[in-house]
Amino acid sequence: MTILCVRFQLPPTREAALPELLGLLEEFTPVVEGLPPDRALADLRGAERYFKRDAVELASVIRVRALALHGVDCAIGAGPGPMLARMALKDARPGVTCSVSEGAVADFLAGRPVAALPGVGAATARTLCEYGLDTLGRVAAAPLSTLQRLVGAKTGRELHEKANGVDRGRVVPNGVSRSLATERPFTRDELDPGLHRRALLSAAEELGSRLRALDKVCRTLTLTVRYADRTGTTRSRTLGEPTAHSAALTRAAYGMYEALGLQRARVRSIALRAEGLDPAEHASRQLTFDPTDEKLRRIEEAADRARARFGPLAVLPGALAA
């Protein structure tokens, strides 16, 4: 077992702490893949040799350090590959690592419903179940040619391999800097849509200023709304062009919020995450003749200079919209 899939038990007000927790994993291995908002994959093959401990033992150390340094517990799944580690995580709970050894892969998969396999959607699962292939054990025992006739050549081959425990996935390091996040918790469960939008404006302005300070642009913006009953809704939007422009981020955030159609929802917190970060010098910008947009960009430049000279509170969040 060399791959860990870690789910950090982040409360709604701590979602932005994920980069710090990824940094904790990187103290054990440089091969860490962040899976926002609260998960990560870590390849511990080198760490096992270096620390002379197996992945389950290292998982216990990671859990203790996450609790001691960040006050965050975590659930951990361990397996020979990323797919199996993700599936093991579903059976894990805080304080206990669910591990799947190489010799136990067949038994681990056999009785699970076919829909439990990553990448198997509702339509594929329904097709397989119609032919009696409702468990991964039955899919693994089915002839490859049969699966390919049912779901297609490529999908059938991948399904046959995964059901037999062949995990060709790998952990792709994406670095802490591949995303930036910020949250706006409310002091009480908030019903007022006007305050929701004000929080979105403040969060978008903060993300924009942080991106510009790093000379980065983002390709995707993700909105997470947490409710009073501890449930949440997450929506993502790919931007028309990579940007660090606060006005563009605000428009995208407002659009996702309006699309939720919240009706007197009691909101506990709102979070925005900028993902798919790239160097600003590599991004192209669509020219515009809108004088208002150009004015906003000049104001942004002045505000960024003020923050660089006098600190982040030199321009209060939301002041640019005043």
Number of helices: 12
Poorly predicted ranges (pLDDT <50, ≥5 residues)?
none
Order of helices and strands: EHEEHHEHEHHHHHEHEEHEEH
Question: What gap, in angstroms, lies between the N and C termini?
Answer: 55 Å
State Rg.
Answer: 23 Å
Average of per-residue pLDDT values? 85
Count the E strands. 10
Helix proportion of residues, in percent?
40-55%
How much of the sequence is in beta strands? 15-25%
Form type: globular
Task: Report what the structure shows.
The chain is α+β, with helices and mostly antiparallel strands and 322 residues long. It has twelve helices and ten strands. It has helices at residues 18-26, 45-51, 55-70, 82-89, 105-110, 122-130, 136-141, 144-151, 153-163, 193-213, 246-260, 291-310, and strands spanning 3-8, 32-35, 39-43, 74-79, 97-99, 179-190, 216-227, 232-243, 267-275, 278-279. A five-stranded mixed beta sheet has the order 2-3-1-4-5. Strands 6, 7, 8, 9 and 10 form a five-stranded antiparallel beta sheet that branches. Helix 4 links the parallel strand 4 (74-79) and strand 5. It is globular and about 65 Å long. The N and C termini lie far apart (55 Å). The relative contact order is 0.11.
Short description:
The chain is an alpha+beta fold and 322 residues long. 42% of the residues lie in helices and 22% in strands.
Which keywords apply here?
alpha+beta, five-stranded antiparallel sheet, single chain, 10 strands, five-stranded mixed sheet, 322 residues, 22% strand, globular
